[in-house]
Design brief:
alpha/beta; Serine Threonine Protein Phosphatase 5, Tetratricopeptide repeat; Alpha-Beta Plaits; Rossmann fold; 20 helices; 16 strands; globular; disordered N terminus
Amino acid sequence: MPSPPAPASPVDPADIDGPALARALLAAERALEREREALNAINVFPVPDGDTGTNMALTMRAACDAIRGSGDTAAATVASAAARAALMGARGNSGVILSQILTGFAAFEDPGAPLDGLALAAGMERGRAAAYHVISQPREGTILTAITGAAQSAAGTAGGPVEVLAAAARAAQEATDRTPELLPVLKEAGVVDAGAQGLAIILDAMVRSLRGEEAAGARGYGAIDEAWLAATRAVHDAGDRSGFCTEFVVTAGALEPDAVRARLSSMGDSVLVVAGDGALRVHLHTATPQKAFAYGRTLGAVSNEKAEDMEAQFQALASRGGPGAGAGLAIVAVAAGAGMEALFRSLGAAAIVHGGQTMNPSAGDIRDAIAGAGGGETIVLPNNKNIVLAAEQAARDLGARVHVVASRSIPQGVAAMIAFNPEAGAQDNAAAMAAAIASVGTGEVTLAARATKIHGIDVRRGQPIALIDGDLALAADTIAGAAGECAGRMLRGRSGAMVTLYYGQGETGEDAEALAERLRKEFRCEAEVVDGGQPHYPYLIGVE
């Protein structure tokens, strides 16, 4: 589960350990999710397919999925796990290059050494070299220019790792701002390079996390010049088709990346071939994706095949006209609490309806949020059993373009958001999100509104109680006791489970983390803590 967008304590300037690095990478993931559509809206190179933000965000999500709740104390271990996952989860040209930057960074000369300023600068340079190595025809004015600026600035900065990374982040943004002067297509379109801007966002978010600062708010980077879009659309309409963005993974014993790269270069352009863990990750733009797949099968077992029509992607970008305008699939989620609302937005929700237990929004409130979300189609997550019917009423009022995924709790809603694939259609996403919520158990810790006896449990007014999947499960003397017993009952018999503790108003992160650590030791589970800030429920507990 994603960590909360709240700041952590500042890091000792002399060293970055594993937990601090993990928090910084998770902060970068959240930042890319926030900026995904803004990056998509300025994506013109190597083709105007409007997916750079999505590809970088999904690649970073794959990297962070490998380190959530890992508890590794060594920075090298965290970096290595993230890099391996990014390699296999890389999406698109920009995602593959990002995975190589992470891979180079993770190749610590001494895995047992701390991540100090010198080690961080060396990692930035390895990341730069790895990114250039996998590209058959490197071009300046791209993410390569940003990583070069970052690596050079890191190498020239004396001090601790946070200071070195801050210098790299500033240099990456400065290099990004120069990209229109290096790549004519960017200047003609009136934008900076989307991939370079994505890297600058990652580095800035990591620095903010390490300094214990608040995350930067969502920003806009303008949009592609309408005249350039019209001229480019005319070229496409005249028959200059861009072909297919083609990707696959080849698994075999011995593979020569350079030879494969040379062969694929005869089939298309934007060729990337990356080796790792006994596999090759391939990306290219070609008019004949099946020919590329067939060649891959002569080398070994082929998986993760994907071929996306870049003409269709361009037309979608041209019709969108900018972030949040018109077409696409939007998510509307119901949530209460600053942390909860920020979490859903960081995962991609276009609009939040404020509400939950004791403050159920109306069908009209939900309908207004759908109208303001700006999607061609919309998925609604009610996140409370008492709001499902209102959401369905709003959907009936607006017609077939609105789909309700009947999440009955916040943990179910978060699981649904994590299952969301921005590249898939509404029907496929609704099915995947519904499947995701079916695997989530929900615990709710609150205070009894009145004295009662249910299921043989005597409850005093104001006593801490816990519900599991909507049914009263226990009463306790303290909130912490109710939360611990509730989570324990949900975890018993579930090997390899993942538990997330969302702590609400009146609770502290220290107490929540202490409970999480106890659950990790007792049940050998993964446990994460999220500052939800929700009212009425000191703890919401999700178990998968």
